[in-house]
Amino acid sequence: MKEIMKKVYILSSVGLLLLGLTVIFAFKNSTDVIVDKGYAIGDVVNDFKLKSTSGGITSMAENRSAKGYIVVFTCNHCPFSKAYESRIMALDKKYASQGYPVLAINPNDPAAYEEDTFENMQAVAKSKGYTFEYLQDETQSVARAFGAARTPSAYVVKREGDKFIMQYIGGIDDNTQDANGVTKRYVEDAVNNLISGKPVVVNITKSVGCAIKWKGV
Questions:
Q1: Among 18, 88, 92, 168, which is 20 to 30 Å from 53 by CA?
Q2: d(CA 209, CA 149)
Q3: What percent of the chain is predicted at pLDDT more than 70?
Q4: Mean pLDDT across 175-195
C-alpha cells in the first residue's frame, strides 16, 4: 500500500510540475506579458520620430500648434481596427482644428500580416483619404514605451510647455463593433475635458482588439 501511495505521489508531483511549466511557458509567450508596463497617467511621454505614409518623418514636437494628441495604435488587417477606422477619422476631423489631432501608429510586424506593410499602409491612407498622419513603428519601440498590447488602443496626451503628459489610456469608446451602438465615448470625453480646462474624469479604460504582432515571437 505504501508503495502504491508513493507512486501516486510521484505521478501527482510530476503532473503538477508539468502544469506549472506549461503555465510559465504560456505567460512567457503572451503578447500582454512581453510588453513593458508603459506610461501611467501623469507621466511625461517621450517624443518619437516615425515614418509617415504622407512622406517624411513625423514627431509630436514638430507641430507647435498642437495642444496635445490623440495617439491611436491601429493597423490594416485587424477587424477591430477596421471597425474603428471611420471613428478614428471622425476624431481627427472633430479635434484637429481644436488642437488635438490624431496620430495613428501601426506597430505590427509586417512579416506576420502582409496587409500591414508600409506600402499597404500608404495604399489604405490614400484610398480612405486619411487627414491624419499614419505612422509605422518599425522597431516597435514606441508601442512598447506606451505599453500598447492591442489594436486599436488609444492614448490622449497634453502638451505642457515642451513636454507631453499622459492624460488618458484605453479604448476609443464602449462598442467595438457598432458605431451606432456607442453609449460612452471615452476619447471624446477626455479631449472635451482637456479643452474645457478640466481634468479627465475617466482616464483609464480597457482596450479590446487584436493582439499586436511582435517581432521574434
A1: 168
A2: 9
A3: 83
A4: 96
Q: Which of 72, 44, 79, 104 is nearest to 173 (CA)?
A: 72
Q: How far is it, in rounded angstroms, from Cα 102 to Cα 121?
A: 16
Element (H, E) at 93: helix 79-95
Whats the size of the chain, residue-wise?
A: 217
- The Cα–Cα gap between 113 and 159 comes to 34
pLDDT at 160 over 80: yes
Enumerate the β-bridge partners of residue 168: 156
Residue 135 · residue 106 · CB < 8 Å:
yes
Measured distance between the N- and C-terminal CA atoms of the chain, rounded to whole angstroms = 48
Query: 217: pLDDT confidence band, cut at 50, 70 and 90?
Result: confident
| 214 within 8 A of 113, measured Cβ to Cβ | no
pLDDT at 28: 36
Helix or strand or coil: residue 140? coil
Q: Distance between CA 53 and CA 153 in Å, rounded?
A: 20
Whether 15 has a pLDDT exceeding 80, the answer reads no
DSSP annotation of 149: -
- H or E element in which residue 164 lies: strand 163-170
CB 149 within 8 A of CB 35: yes
User: Residue written as cell 489631432?
Assistant: 101
Give CA–CA dist 75/90, Å, rounded. 17
The residue type of 184 is K
Residue-by-residue DSSP string for 25-60:
HHHHT-HHHHS-----TTPBPPP--EEETTSSEE-S
Q: Model pTM greater than 0.90? A: no
Cell numbers 514627431: residue: 59
